[in-house]
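G., before I forget:
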Amino acid sequence: MVEVKLLKQSDLLKGLDNSLLEKIAQISQSKVYAAEQVLFEHRTKIDRIYMVLRGEVELFLPLAEGRQVKLHQVQPGELFGFSAILPAGCYTTFAAKALAGTELIEISGSLLKQLMEESPEYGFELSKVFLQAYSRKKKRQTFAFIASLAKHPGLAPYLR
Amino acid sequence: MVSKEELLKFDTLNAFTSQELAKLAAIAHIFVYKKDQKIFAQGESLTNLYLMDRGEVVLTFELNKDVTLIFSHLRPGTFFGITGLCAEKTFQNAYCLRPSQVIVFPLKKLEELFVEDKRLGFKLYYELLKLYHKIAQKRTLHTLKLLKERKDLKNLDFVSTMLDFSG
């Protein structure tokens, strides 16, 4: 269990009802990761939504021949790993590793999903917030991609 | 209003009970669009959620007056115009390549429905979350395919912009 005030460090969660945050706090725990420690691999089914409390997490995509591409550096207050509440067949679209001195809050995906199903009010409130986060990211991603087309015009067919 | 049976045919609505489908059907309308007709345009604040029924609708982005990017061809049963539910302006156009039929849910009525039936709201939002995640998965696979096919691409910065989708 973690303190509610820690969850409120997230822009995404801070607007939620206190009673809901208390429920989320009960199914969460904090954990410290060493530098370079892998949280999960690409294309795996995970059972944790992660929130960075301290330090940073790198989201990356491992490629063939030992190459990898960095996708995003997650900062304190940000959440990732929403696929944890989605059904089988929804896997991670990246791998994640901790950078130096990283403390995370880990929210149980299965228990959160259970809470959302048992209490429709909470389910509605949370799924709405998560959808807004997805929507903002999709928009940001699309505009970034459009900008990158200027450098790599041959990529257009891969957008589909 | 559409019939409940009209909604039953879509796999994307499998999770909904018969009663819930009846509630959704009661506020929905069927719209028929002509070839080359725009359903909505980038920059608009949407007032409806859309469900692709039949025909051929694409989501596009006009880069400039000469170049239009096609993001996706919508399959029957695919929701689109989701940004309206997130109170954001859309950044895409929905455009009919052929005469098309779309089921339209007015956002105002959906919101009223969610006030009285939160479970229905949760279920719909959850389906949309799944849809967004599937798009992210598809893009990741496409990008990996691209990197396999185009070994000439040394600078991988662009990949992060394509996949910065921390779901």
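Residues 118-149 of chain B form the longest helix (32 residues). Chain B has one domain: 4-152+159-163.

More on Monday.
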